[in-house]
Specification:
Length: 145
């Protein structure tokens, strides 16, 4: 029996792309959501003057490693699945009837349901975690630093 896919948030995705995959995610099939991917792209590619949680780990890398990590962000590796909203849209519509989540949360919930995934979060998200539990999905904490 293979382990459930790992649906990873933006911070964990950043760690993977920087070559710092958390131990709990190694040798796992990885996926992320469009919203988490976009948030990471916005944070890293906007190159803000004050790096936040998503940008700071990229900024701390030596120039050559940072360049490789940004290239991986721009051209997401094939081994990281990203579900289309074409597939998730109908699922989101059905789940919206039962869960009052924002766009980020409902997309994550739908992706977890479609993939039958365990969700790895870098920070607590009580509403999302409650919805995931209601849909029978497991949530794990992951350190992305």
């Amino acid at each position: 029996m293979t382990a459930a896919p790992a649906l990873i948030d933006d911070q964990a995705l950043g760690a993977v792309l920087r070559g710092a995959t958390p131990r709990s995610l190694r040798r796992r099939r990885l996926a992320t959501t469009g919203y988490w991917y976009v948030r990471l792209c916005q944070a890293v590619l906007a190159d803000a003057e004050r790096p936040g949680t998503l940008l700071a780990p990229f900024s701390a890398l030596p120039a050559d490693q940072r360049q490789r990590a940004v290239a991986a962000l721009i051209e997401l590796p094939e081994n990281i699945e990203l579900l289309s909203l074409r597939m998730l849209g109908p699922v989101i519509g059905r789940l919206r009837q039962r869960h009052a989540l924002n766009a980020l949360g409902i997309e994550a919930l739908a992706a977890a349901v479609v993939l039958d995934a365990t969700v790895y979060l870098s920070a607590p998200s009580p509403l999302l975690e409650s919805a995931l539990a209601a849909e029978g999905r497991q949530v794990r904490r992951v350190s992305s630093t």
